[in-house]
C-alpha cells in the first residue's frame, strides 16, 4: 500500500454552557458574554481577555479592578491567564469560563494553555463532559494517545450517548492498529448520530486499512454528501480510488481536498504518487516538493512510497 492514510478528530467548537447562580457576580456574567461575542467574531485574543476577567471575578467575589494591557510571553501568546492560576473557585460558572477560554486558546494554537484550562474546569466541575472531550483532542495533539483515550473513556462514563467521544476514540484506536475496537466505536457513534460526516470519514479509513474498498468508498461518499467541505473525506475517497486503480478520479479528489485545505501535505503526497504511477513525473515532483515544504518530517516516508509507486508503474508496463 503506497498511499498515506489520515483521520479526523472531533472537538466541541461551541462555547461551554455556564450555570449562573445567585452568587455569580453580574460583572463576571457580562465579561463572559463579551468573550462569547468576541470568540464568535474570531477575535480570540479579546475573547481570552474577557474569559479571564470572568474567571477572576467569579472566583473572588467582590474582586474587580481596572483593565490593564495583557503581557505577552515569549511564545507569542497572551499571558493574562496566569493571574487566574491558583484560584480556589466554588461557583460552577467558573468551570464554564475555563472551558470556554480553553477552546479559545486551542483555536489560537496554544495547546498547553488549553489543556491547563480544561484541567482547571474539571477540578471545579468533574462532570463537565465537553472539557474531557476537548482535552482528549488536545492531549492527542501532544502525542499522548493513552491520555486522550482516558479522557474519552471518562466522557462516555458521564454521558454514554456522546457520539463524538466514540468517534474520536475509534479514530485513535484505528491509528493504534486496533481495527475491531475502532469499528465498534465508530458503529456506536453512528448509531447515536447517523448524520455525522466525520464518523463516516473515520470509519472509511478503517475499512481502507482492512482493504474493504467498497465499504470504504461508501463511507467516504456519505461523508462528502453530508459535508462537501471536508477535505479528509475527499482525501479518503481518493485513496480508495487510487487503490482500485482509478487514478484520474483519485487525482480529482486529492485536488479537491487541496482546494479546501491548501496545506494538506498528505494530499500533495498522494496526488504526487498517483501522478507518478501515470508517468507524469514533472507534475508529481511539484507535489512532492510541496509536501516536503509543508511537512519535512515526511521525507523518509515519502521516499519509500515513491520507490513503491515506481515499482507499481514498472509492473504495469
CATH superfamily of one domain: Tetratricopeptide repeat domain
Helix and strand string, N-terminal first? HHHHHHHHHHHHHHH
Q: Biggest sheet: strands, sense, closure? A: none
Mean pLDDT: 87
- CATH top level of one domain is Mainly Alpha
Tags for this entry?
mainly alpha; 15 helices; 317 residues
Would you give an account of this structure?
The chain is mainly α. The chain has a domain at 228-317: Tetratricopeptide repeat domain (Serine Threonine Protein Phosphatase 5, Tetratricopeptide repeat). The protein contains 15 helices and no strands. The protein has helices at residues 26-40, 44-59, 92-108, 111-124, 129-141, 145-158, 163-175, 179-192, 197-209, 213-226, 231-243, 247-260, 265-277, 281-294, 299-316. Helix 6 runs antiparallel to helix 7, helix 7 packs antiparallel against helix 8 and helix 13 (265-277) packs antiparallel against helix 14. The longest helix is centred in the C-terminal third of the chain and has 18 residues, at 299-316. Residues 63-89 have low confidence and may be disordered.
SSE layout:
Layout: H1 26-40, H2 44-59, H3 92-108, H4 111-124, H5 129-141, H6 145-158, H7 163-175, H8 179-192, H9 197-209, H10 213-226, H11 231-243, H12 247-260, H13 265-277, H14 281-294, H15 299-316
Helix pairs in contact: 1-2, 2-3, 3-4, 4-5, 5-6, 6-7, 7-8, 7-9, 8-9, 9-10, 9-11, 10-11, 11-12, 11-13, 12-13, 13-14, 13-15
Short synopsis of the structure:
By secondary structure, this protein is an all-alpha fold. It has a domain at 228-317: Tetratricopeptide repeat domain (Serine Threonine Protein Phosphatase 5, Tetratricopeptide repeat, Alpha Horseshoe), CATH 1.25.40.10. Helix content is 68%, strand content 0%.
